[in-house]
């Protein structure tokens, strides 16, 4: 009966859960309140091999399979979604494109520090006027002696200000449209890369998200990722994996909301009995559990297909669409079950509700997932 995990997968899941509850969960509320970036926790995750889980051990990674990564990410999100999104970005849109499109020299130079947690990475695609329509980006890369100079603006850059290496998309040939966009590995520790202040976000408050200005930022010739014009190929090459990763984050948040709701329904009393004995609360819990079980099967199936090398565009988009939308609904019901307390910072479900909301937006909105699914069905 699916899912059936190998011994290694089960061990990784258990290790991730134990670490998450012992080291990540205790300070999550304080970090949410202060916005403090969990630098020490990320260092530990790197030492455990969780920041480059699918990167081969030869390049400093964990050498794990994709499903193991999804299982670990889910457990981290269960404790703190802000830590999970940093882990996800480093794995899925920093390490993964370099692993897929990088030269042996690029893998040696960039993957080892990224996978070990020595430095963090990120992804610069979105711009103030180019989000879902990635081909509309305006950032320009001009060829100069020894490399390229980048000028433009990037928006909603996770790990901005705390990361070093960013897979960055820029237009190298404006006359070629989508085929005139190239991908670069940008070192953010240089003049010309100007990180804005952290965005004041609704949720994921200890994860750093910034605007970035590029003013003659230099990228050496050997940091071109793929060939000139391969930018969107690089950007979209990891979309299936990225979508499954966001679904796993949402799944972890939703499972925590479910567990907190069940515990509260057992102990909170109204009208002389635990609220869990009221039919309406039971109805909420039953529907929450049904959506959780369906989401988990969708996420694990998509992850297993990707690991097996099978095309999983529809499955990945379906997993993200259903799981994130369900997770938002589950967290909303959790707040409702808690009543007035659910609206208070004192209770965890309030943070879960704020953290989960963005999962229907980043790595492709729910609307984009519907377009992807329909397009694939109508081919």
What is this structure, in a nutshell?
This protein is α+β, with helices and mostly antiparallel strands.
Count every helix, treating DSSP H or I runs of 4 or more residues as helices: 12
- Strand order, biggest sheet? 1-4-5-8
Dominant shape: globular
Q: What order do the SSEs take from the amino end to the carboxyl end, as H and E? A: HHHHHHEEEEEEEEHHEEHHHH
Helix residue percentage: 40-55%
Give the overall average pLDDT: 95
Number of β-strand runs: 10
- Highest CATH level, the class of the largest domain: Mainly Alpha
Specify the CATH architecture of the largest domain: Up-down Bundle
The domain tally reads: 3
Biggest β-sheet: count, sense, barrel?
Answer: 4 strands, mixed
Fold-level CATH name of the largest domain: Butyryl-CoA Dehydrogenase, subunit A, domain 3
Q: What can you see in these coordinates?
A:
This protein has 379 residues and is an alpha+beta fold. The protein is built from twelve helices and ten strands. The chain has three domains: 113 residues, Acyl-CoA dehydrogenase/oxidase, N-terminal domain (Butyryl-Coa Dehydrogenase, subunit A, domain 1, Orthogonal Bundle); 106 residues, Beta Barrel (Butyryl-CoA Dehydrogenase, subunit A, domain 2), CATH 2.40.110; 140 residues, Butyryl-CoA Dehydrogenase, subunit A, domain 3. Helix content is 51%, strand content 15%. The strands form three sheets. Strands 1-4-5-8 form a four-stranded mixed β-sheet. A four-stranded antiparallel β-sheet has the order 2-3-7-6, with helices on one face. Strand 9 and strand 10 form a beta hairpin. The mean pLDDT is 95.
């Amino acid at each position: 009966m699916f899912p059936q995990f190998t011994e290694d997968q089960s061990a990784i899941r258990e290790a991730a859960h134990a670490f998450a509850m012992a080291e990540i969960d205790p300070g999550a509320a304080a970090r949410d309140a202060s916005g403090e970036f969990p630098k020490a926790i990320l260092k530990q995750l790197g030492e455990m091999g969780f920041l480059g889980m699918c990167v081969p051990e030869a390049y400093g990674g964990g050498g794990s399979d994709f499903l193991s990564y999804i299982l670990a990410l889910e457990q981290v999100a269960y404790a703190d979604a802000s830590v999970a999104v940093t882990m996800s970005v480093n794995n899925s849109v920093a390490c993964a494109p370099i692993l897929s499109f990088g030269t042996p020299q690029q893998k040696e130079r960039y993957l080892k520090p990224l996978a070990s947690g020595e430095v963090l990475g990120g992804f610069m695609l979105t711009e103030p006027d180019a989000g879902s329509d990635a081909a509309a980006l305006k950032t320009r890369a001009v060829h100069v002696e020894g490399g390229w100079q980048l000028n433009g603006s990037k928006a909603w850059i996770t790990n901005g200000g705390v990361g070093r290496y960013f897979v960055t998309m820029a237009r190298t040939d404006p006359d070629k449209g989508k085929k005139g966009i190239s991908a670069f590995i940008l070192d953010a520790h240089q003049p010309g890369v100007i990180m804005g202040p952290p965005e004041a976000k609704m949720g994921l408050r200890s994860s750093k998200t910034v605007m970035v200005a590029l003013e003659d930022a230099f990228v050496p010739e050997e940091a071109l990722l793929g060939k000139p014009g391969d930018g969107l190929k690089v950007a979209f090459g990891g979309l299936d994996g990225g979508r499954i990763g966001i679904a796993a984050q949402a799944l972890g948040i939703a499972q925590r909301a479910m567990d907190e709701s069940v515990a509260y329904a057992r102990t909170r009393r109204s009208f002389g009995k635990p609220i869990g004995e009221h039919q309406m609360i039971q109805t909420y819990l039953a529907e929450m559990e049904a959506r959780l079980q369906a989401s988990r099967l969708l996420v694990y199936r998509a992850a297993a297909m990707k690991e097996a090398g099978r095309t999983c565009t529809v499955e990945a988009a379906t997993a993200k669409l259903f799981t994130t939308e369900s997770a938002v609904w589950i967290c909303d019901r959790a707040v409702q079950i808690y009543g007035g307390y659910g609206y208070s910072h004192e209770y965890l479900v309030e943070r879960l509700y704020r953290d989960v909301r963005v999962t229907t937006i980043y790595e492709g909105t729910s609307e984009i997932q519907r377009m992807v699914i329909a397009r694939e069905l109508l081919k």
